[in-house]
Each structure stands twice: as structure tokens, then as C-alpha cells.
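> forwarded from #structure-qc
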């Protein structure tokens, strides 16, 4: 079995074992990693390891699976990408803004592969949050605008798409502080 197919099954089982559902739509959670993996697969130069990591990108944060488990099952390259996508801040690191800054700085140091997956994740989550939670969207989009500033190594097409989502949101809502390219 190829690594990306194995990752799909693994992520489906890990999220499914907890009965995880998407917050706003109540769909099975795996629809999110599937959307992220599809976007990544469509980027030029995507590797099967990148696609596998896209399937697994939320497993360590959201399930009982550890990065050691990912390393054992999928090898160092996939584990390194997943680890790079996993938030490192802890609740005792301060308020939400402080924690997001810690995670942003960590992501700024990650590989192009990791940043490409994070861009796909940002795009999919942004669409859901803007559509289903307008109150939280304002906070979320500000955070993602800040995050986008450090995701410069990722796929340029995904970067442009994320930039447009954020810019359009700011314009539509008459908010200041739209990103400059």
C-alpha cells in the first residue's frame, strides 16, 4: 500500500475512533484532512509524503496519536512535516495571542512542504469559519493574516488563494490592515 493511502486510512481511523465531527457542519472530521490532502496533491511538485502528511496534519493535536507513532508508521520525513504543523504552544504560555505567536514563529522555520500543507489547511478552515461563524471569523482571519506573513516558502498558488480569501474578507467587512504582498 502506498504511503498516502496508508495515511488516509490511518487518519480516518484515528479521528473516527474519537467520533470527531466538524464543528460547524457535523460532518465526519476526516472531510477536512481530505480537502487539505486534495489541495496539496494538486500542487506542482507534491510528493506522496506531503500528501500523507496532509492526511495526518491534525492527528497529533486532535487524537491520542503521538509524533512518535507517526514516525514509526510513516518514517522521519512525514513525521517531521506533521510535527512542523503541530502547535507547540501550551495553555500556560499565555493568552490566545501569545500562544498563536509562538506557533507562528515555529511555522516560520518550517520547510516549504510543511508550509504548503499549512496554506491548504488555512484555506479550508477559513472558508468554513467565514461561512459558519462570523463572530469568530474576525479573530480567526486576523490570526491567519499574521500567519500568512511567515508562510512564504509554501506553494505560491495556495499562498495567493489564501491571500485572496483574507483580503476579500477584510474588504467585504470594511476592515483595515489588509495584507500587502
Amino acid at each position: 500500500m502506498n504511503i498516502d493511502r496508508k495515511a488516509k486510512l490511518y487518519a480516518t481511523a484515528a479521528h473516527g475512533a474519537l467520533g470527531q465531527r466538524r464543528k460547524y457542519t457535523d460532518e465526519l472530521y476526516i472531510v477536512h484532512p481530505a480537502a487539505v490532502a486534495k489541495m496539496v496533491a494538486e500542487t506542482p511538485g507534491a510528493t506522496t509524503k506531503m500528501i500523507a502528511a496532509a492526511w495526518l496534519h491534525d492527528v497529533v493535536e486532535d487524537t491520542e496519536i503521538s509524533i512518535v507513532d507517526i514516525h514509526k508508521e510513516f518514517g522521519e520525513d512525514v513525521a517531521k512535516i506533521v510535527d512542523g504543523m503541530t502547535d507547540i504552544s501550551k495553555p500556560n504560555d499565555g493568552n490566545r495571542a501569545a500562544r498563536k505567536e509562538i506557533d507562528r514563529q515555529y511555522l516560520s522555520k518550517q520547510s516549504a512542504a510543511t508550509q504548503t500543507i499549512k496554506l491548504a489547511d488555512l484555506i479550508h478552515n477559513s472558508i468554513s469559519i467565514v461561512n459558519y461563524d462570523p463572530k469568530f471569523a474576525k479573530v480567526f482571519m486576523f490570526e491567519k493574516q499574521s500567519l500568512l506573513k511567515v508562510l512564504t516558502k509554501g506553494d505560491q498558488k495556495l499562498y495567493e488563494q489564501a491571500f485572496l480569501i483574507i483580503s476579500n474578507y477584510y474588504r467585504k467587512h470594511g476592515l483595515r490592515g489588509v495584507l500587502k504582498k
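QC bot note: Residues 3-172 form a domain with the Hypothetical protein af1432 fold (CATH 1.10.3210.10). The CA atoms of residues 126 and 140 lie 8 Å apart.
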